[in-house]
Write a structure and sequence with these properties.
The structure is a single chain. This protein is α+β, with helices and mostly antiparallel strands and 207 residues long. The chain folds into two domains: 2-128, 2-Layer Sandwich (Ribosomal Protein S5, domain 2); 133-206, Alpha-Beta Plaits (2-Layer Sandwich). Helix content is 31%, strand content 37%. It is built from five helices and ten strands; from the N terminus they run βββαββαβαβαββαβ. Strands 1, 7, 8, 9 and 10 form a five-stranded antiparallel sheet that branches. It has a five-stranded antiparallel sheet with strand order 2-3-6-4-5, with helices on both faces. Helix 2 packs parallel to helix 3 (109-125).
Length: 207
């Protein structure tokens, strides 16, 4: 199952390891532009840090998902990749993590850096509730204008999400559901079998 963080959440953690301070911040990001803005904000807030390492996962669908990470001057593979692995370990999408490091004068070694960067991200995740992401299927059905309002009300009463209603020769209702078989039964009952459902795609929703 996929998860994300609440749009208003501000997961944060700070750890001091052998005199180096590691400050992790996570945010919900739904686009590369949102991630870029978040990274710029962190760099401004923590201007004195020597490194701003990051990892992000944007998009629920594997075919179009965007993943980015950076060690930002730390030895290769010791920061960004472990941070990304921490996000993968929780099944997170549409989220970015930035860890700012203030060097304390003691070298941690590759293994120490991996543990510090991934561990600070995990600590930040412990400060917030993760939200499950559910893949809902989209269907359309066409009904007469005179019954469109009643059909919408019945669908909502039965717990289905009416996404859109377009009026042309008929009223075309778009519905999102994670239970297609249940929607099929409901539409058959509501319309007495007079209309068909057409599958038109999918959308992701928080549960």
């Amino acid at each position: 199952m996929l998860f994300s963080v609440d749009a208003d959440a501000r997961p944060y953690a700070e750890e001091t390891i052998k005199k180096s301070r590691f400050i992790a911040r996570l945010r919900r990001v739904d686009s590369e532009a949102a991630f870029t803005a978040f990274l710029a904000d962190v760099r401004e807030i923590e201007r004195g840090a020597g490194h701003h390492c990051y990892a992000c996962v944007i998009g629920e669908d594997e075919g179009t998902r965007i993943e980015r990470f950076s060690d930002d001057g730390e030895p290769g593979g010791t920061a960004g990749a472990p941070m990304l692995a921490a996000l993968h370990g929780r099944g997170l999408v549409n989220v970015a993590a930035v860890v700012s490091r203030y060097y304390g004068g003691v070298n941690l070694g590759a293994g120490g850096l991996v543990r510090a960067y991934s561990g600070t991200v995990i600590a930040a995740l412990e400060t917030t509730e993760l939200r499950p992401r559910v893949r809902a299927q989209l269907f359309r059905l066409a009904v007469e204008h005179a019954t469109a309002g009643w059909v919408q009300a019945e669908l909502r009463r039965r717990g289905f999400e009416v996404v859109e209603v377009a009026y042309a020769e008929q009223a075309v209702i778009t519905v999102a559901t994670a239970e297609p078989s249940g929607l099929q039964v409901a539409v058959a009952e509501i319309t007495s079998g007079a209309t068909d459902l057409v599958h038109v795609g999918h959308v992701w929703r928080e549960r």
